[in-house]
Amino acid sequence: MPGGLFGIEIAKSGILANQRAIDVTGQNIANVNNDDYHKQRAILGTTSPLYPLSLQGGTGARQIGTGVEVKLIQRVRDAFLERRLREETTDLGEFETAFDFLHQVELIYNEPSENSLRTRADEFWQALQDLSNNPDDMAVRSAVRESAQGVVEIIQEQASEFLRLGGITSNTSINQDIQGIVNDMNTSARELALLNKQIQVQEAGGYQ
What gap in Å lies between CA 5 and CA 70, rounded to an integer? Predict the structure, then answer.
């Protein structure tokens, strides 16, 4: 049978286990503003019971509890929220990429401005109108020619920018972006492999 100090040992186990739980709570409070921190909780469980020897028979319960202990420190997580976060993060990345691409298209068109395709085209149409009213005026003819040249130049310039943006020419924006993404993915894959090894070591030691 357990000795007279057995009850004190049980009480001691309760104090130590709950002290550990308070430490976990303190850790949570200390990291309340840490976005990279996941809340934790202490999982308590009974320790192994005693089965005292007895020469007497009987069918009554013969297990004697020995106290409580912290079985593990568990990360608090919500699988639903984590899944939604991954989905929304993916969508955000797509929208940010589309926004950046369309912003570059907007810069190429450069509307409205004095040096845009629309402005050059309006000047050309006005020059043609003037030419229709004064077909024999050499100055008007020259103005039409210059306006037409201006339209051609702006179209060629924008076409060149779209080719660069679309990845058709060398040293292009999208090709560089893709290469950057590939490099980031390779780096993340190496970090993930290292993290998986660390997780395996922790799990092999009985930790979560």
Answer: 22
Listed residue (118, 178, 128) closest to 148, CA to CA: 128
Pairing state of beta strands 40-46 and 68-75? antiparallel
pTM of full prediction above 0.70: no
SS3 134: coil
C-alpha 67: how far from chain center: 44
pLDDT by residue (tens digit) across 158-207?
888 888 777 655 455 666 777 777 888 888 888 989 988 988 888 888 77
Sign of the CA dihedral running 106, 107, 111, 116: negative
Per-residue pLDDT tens over the stretch 120-160: 888 889 888 888 888 888 888 888 899 899 889 888 888 88
With b for 16 or more beta-carbon neighbours within 10 A and e for fewer, the 69-84 pattern comes to ebeebeeeeeeeeeee
DSSP assignment, residue 55?
A: S
Rounded alpha-carbon distances, angstroms, from residue 12 to 31, 43, 67, 126: 29, 18, 8, 96
Residues 6+ apart with CB under 8 A from 50: 2, 63, 64, 66
